[in-house]
Amino acid sequence: MRRAGFDVVVHDRDADPAATGGYHITLDRAAQDALRDLLGPELHTRLLASASAVRRRPPDVWFDWRGRLLGDLDVAGLDPDSVDVDRITLRLVLAEAAGDSLVLASTCTAVERDPGPDGEVRARFADGSVARADLLVGADGPQSLVVAHLAGRPTSRPAGVVGVSGRTRADDLDPGRAAVLGPRSSLAVGPGGTALYCGYLDPAGFAVLDAAHLRASVTTGPTYVWGAMFPTATAPRDLRGRDGDRLRATTLDALRAAGWAEGPLQVIARTDPATVASYPFTVGPERARDTAPWPAGRVTALGDAVHCTPPTAGKGAGTAVVDAHALVRELVAVRAGTQTLHTAVSVFERDMRHRGSAVVELSMRTVRRVLATATPAGSALTRASLPLLARSTALRGARGRRSRT
Ligand SMILES: Cc1cc2nc3c(=O)[nH]c(=O)nc-3n(C[C@H](O)[C@H](O)[C@H](O)COP(=O)(O)OP(=O)(O)OC[C@H]3O[C@@H](n4cnc5c(N)ncnc54)[C@H](O)[C@@H]3O)c2cc1C
């Protein structure tokens, strides 16, 4: 909005954009196009110079809990033109774009609206300050205060899965283990609804642009960004803490108790405890008609605040970026005098209802699959069927090798 010439102030309760969990973020073509427009060519090029191209790395695969290869993983909805960027790098670039419009360590505590379509809009902050605006946009993520104000209640709910994630440098793994994981992302599934995602991030190795001098990534070498998943109902209570050492130990114990072999767990055992964090998956409405259930006005919201998206589709951040771009486009038309603010917000929210609910539905497919293996029948089926699948994958591999020799 700032780049489009609007007078804008961004308040964020975080004091430091770099002080956040450092998972990678996959941005599809639509999100990249939106970001180019929003950031301008210079910052966008710097972001791409720090990104790795999904198309350049081998296809994702899946394993079972004992480390046996099951085959290629068909990632629903993955755009081959996607790029992976480091989350901290993305936040730093966005903060730079916001420039002196960004007010950090500023926690919003209340939203107020005077009655009537032109009633004043105010945001109150923890330090006692008040901001007045023509339009207030809540981009305040899961458990959004702005959405609770608009809808009169939270519109997101727990998804039934708790995740623990961390980062492990490929160099810190045994060479044999690093070779099994390879320069690709993978998902390992086990009994009792347990799963372990290993995302491969290598901005230098699979660079999108040949422009190393522009690289701003905080990821220094090939890194696995792992995420273990447990059904909330059976997850150990200790998984809700903040102590990285303890979280790592609890995660390992819980996976071992579910029968996981040591090989797949090495990526967790060798992780830097400072990078380990746990987060319950939160999910927004899966139907467009339940998304943003309020009349259009001078307060709106976007991104996870409206359509909170579990990480299982890798689309939440990209969709938030596309929302922001769509809103700016509508507001530019208001300034040009071709539509009213009310119409602009209405059109924006109508489109966001469809866009947001579609990605929420996509991301919940994997969550449901994980939860299906958590039942006694699902666990038994997992234990029985995956070894058979692994054997057939191994046989196909052996036959392929024989026919090549
Ligand atoms: C492990 C993991 C991996 C993921 N991987 C991907 C991926 O590969 N690709 C992808 O597209 N998505 C991914 N996602 C999802 C993605 O992170 C979210 O969808 C995305 O961050 C949503 O962006 P947002 O700006 O709407 O909300 P957020 O990123 O949650 O940002 C909300 C901001 O609002 C601030 N805030 C909140 N409340 C207040 C308040 N009261 N006052 C002031 N400030 C406030 C917060 O400090 C924060 O900076 C992943 C998520 C996780 C947990």
Structure explained in plain terms:
It contains eleven helices and 17 strands. By secondary structure, the chain is of the alpha+beta class. The chain has one domain: FAD/NAD(P)-binding domain (3-Layer(bba) Sandwich), CATH 3.50.50.60. The strands form five sheets. A seven-stranded mixed sheet has the order 5-4-13-14-15-12-16. The structure holds flavin-adenine dinucleotide (FAD). Flavin-adenine dinucleotide binds next to strand 2, helix 8 and helix 9.
Question: What's a quick, concise take on this entry?
Answer:
The protein has helices spanning 29-39, 41-49, 87-98, 145-151, 175-181, 244-257, 262-269, 304-307, 316-335, 341-372, 376-404; strands at 10-11, 24-27, 52-53, 61-64, 69-72, 83-86, 102-103, 108-113, 121-125, 130-133, 136-138, 157-169, 186-189, 195-201, 223-231, 277-283, 299-301.
Descriptive labels:
38% helix, FAD/NAD(P)-binding domain, seven-stranded mixed β-sheet, globular
Helix share bin? 25-40%
Q: If you average the pLDDT, what whole number results? A: 89
CATH topology: FAD/NAD(P)-binding domain
Top-tier CATH class: Alpha Beta
Write down the Rg.
22 Å
Number of strands: 17
Question: Could you list the spans in which at least 5 consecutive residues all have pLDDT below 50?
Answer: 401-405
CATH superfamily: FAD/NAD(P)-binding domain
CATH architectural name: 3-Layer(bba) Sandwich
Number of distinct helices: 11
Our measurement of the CA-to-CA distance between the termini, rounded to an integer number of angstroms, reads: 60 Å
Instruction: Describe the sheet with the most strands.
Output: 7 strands, mixed
| Overall number of domains | 1
Strand fraction equals 15-25%
Cross-sheet strand order for the largest sheet: 5-4-13-14-15-12-16
* Secondary-structure element order, N to C: EEHHEEEEHEEEEEHEHEEEHHEEHHHH
User: What small molecules accompany the polymer chains?
Assistant: flavin-adenine dinucleotide
Structure classification = alpha+beta
